[in-house]
Automatic annotation (TrEMBL):
TM ranges: 36-58
InterPro entries on file: Ig_E-set, IRK_C, K_chnl_inward-rec_Kir, K_chnl_inward-rec_Kir_cyto, Kir_TM
Species annotation: Rotaria magnacalcarata
Compartments (UniProt record): Membrane
Protein's recorded name: Uncharacterized protein
Highest taxon of source: Eukaryota
Length: 241
């Protein structure tokens, strides 16, 4: 190795090699096979180490966990009539207006204890609830707060529950929202659950959009959890309507 006589010279040769600065007076000659092997090993190890650091920093910067904190779920769910059908409704909002979530999709699950015909006990049985899969309403464009509805029909687990039975029922509703972040292309997900105590029978969500003639369309987030009573909804179950 030319130009290297001390440990400091070896260190400078290593730094110049790794950072491709240029050797100057220090270089590895053809007569030093061990130095050549060490130089190749350091170069390969340095490239691997740099790639790992770039990947770690990049992943840390674009992690979509904080994105889900801009999504709001209503504190309560409601059951009321809509288009002559009894429906379960929750509200979902997005407080970030600079970008939207692409390919957004909503899912709702009914979690309860179930006993099979053979007597087997399933403590946490998961049942998918229809929120518009057959009509495409499960695909959302979350530009303003939306009310997610599940129509209580004969296939719904809430089909036979009236207001009194709902208060004493033992189940949990899990609502899952997924969307692709516009700037990074990464998938983000947020979840929220409701128990029977969180469901208000015979109520609706108050409108949040203001469309005054003299002002542009505005969203009043102070009414995000506000409810109003629905006198058209009867306390009987959807099966009895």
């Amino acid at each position: 190795v030319d130009g290297v006589k001390t440990f400091t010279g070896c260190l400078l040769l290593s730094i110049e090699t790794q950072q491709t600065i240029g050797y100057g007076t220090r270089s590895v000659t053809e007569q030093c096979s061990s130095g050549l092997i060490l130089l190749v090993a350091q170069t390969c190890f340095g490239l691997i180490l740099q790639s790992l650091w770039v990947g770690i920093v990049y992943t840390k910067l674009i992690r979509p966990k904080k994105r889900r904190h801009t999504l709001l779920w209503s504190r309560q769910a409601v059951i009321s009539l809509r288009d002559k059908y009894l429906t379960l409704q929750v509200r979902l909002g997005e407080i970030r207006s600079q970008s939207i979530l692409l390919d957004a999709q909503i899912r709702m699950y009914f979690i309860s204890r179930r006993i099979t015909q053979e007597g087997e006990i399933i403590p946490l049985d998961l049942l998918d609830m229809n929120v518009g899969l057959d009509t495409g309403r499960d695909r959302l464009l979350l530009i303003w707060p939306l009310v997610i509805e599940h129509r209580i029909d004969s296939k719904s687990p809430l089909w036979s529950l009236d207001r009194k039975q709902l208060a004493s029922a033992d189940f949990e509703l899990l609502v899952v929202f997924e969307g692709v972040i516009e700037s990074t292309g990464l998938l983000t997900q947020t979840r929220h659950s409701y128990i029977p105590d969180d469901i208000v029978w015979g109520a609706r969500f108050e409108p949040m959009l203001r469309n005054d003639p003299d002002t542009p369309l505005t969203i009043d987030y102070s009414k995000f959890d506000a409810l109003c009573w629905d006198t058209c909804t009867k306390p009987c179950s959807a099966n009895e309507l």
